[in-house]
Design brief:
single chain; alpha/beta; 9 helices; 12 strands; 37% helix; 21% strand; binds zinc ion
Length: 301
Amino acid sequence: MLFGAIETGGSKVICAVGTGPHDIRDRVRIPTTMPAETLAEVNDFLLRHHRETPLSAVGVGSFGPLDLQDDSPTYGYVLDTPKPGWPNTDLLGPIQQALDLPVALDTDVNAAALGEHRWGAGVGLDSLVYITVGTGIGGGAVVASRPVHGASHPEMGHVRIPHDRESDPFEGFCPYHGDCFEGLAAGPAIELRWGIPGESLPEDHPAWALEAEYLAAGIANIVLVLSPQRIVVGGGVMEQRHLFPMIRERVVELLHGYGVTEKIVNALDDYVVPPALGDDSGIAGAFGLAEMALTASGEAT
Ligand code: ZN
């Protein structure tokens, strides 16, 4: 059974066709330009394969925010994104119209959480959170093996964390909240605060202790809200692997014995982990979404 899997990012769209993430038959990378042009290329890719060997369903993981309420007139739309040209774009409709197949849409980070849950660091667990720390911070969650959303979808990157303005006068760069989690700890915050991009800072630079402090604070909040069985932390900033032990240690200190079990504290190296699928968590999750779309369509008929 063949599925289409699409991962829509701010700068590129990954399109794949296969039976799953370990059997990808074709994969292309399309630059994210204006919506009409980009979505036409996505549809060309899917249709070309669908005509050759029919696809069973398509899964799409996308940057957001997204309208994921299925009774909403703008269901499947990208909402008020800062990305030029993309606010109020119907993402799902053109794919559904072109292919007439079950299509499921979720956020890029919920897709990544699903991908890691099904095929990566979360195999065998019921719940997992995936956080990306890159040009922004986003978080997705899988609970009882399904991506979590409700009135909207989780926006874990915008939770509030303690900010001592004396030791860190940087105001934060989030256009909505200033010094929220993303505003203080995403990649651009490091560069704006220190005047040097993170990848050029040495491991002993004080930037990293502060970064670990903020990441640990955000992660501690997530632990207290969702109590996931594992937290996967990916994204460009996390290429700095030395952050992991610093974050783990500080999460435990911040929780101060509350909210995490002895079992987790004793196995912390297995609790806050890098993605097992590397850069492919999102596209794997899009395959997972396609499977879920197919299952849901079977239940509906
Ligand atoms: Zn924010």
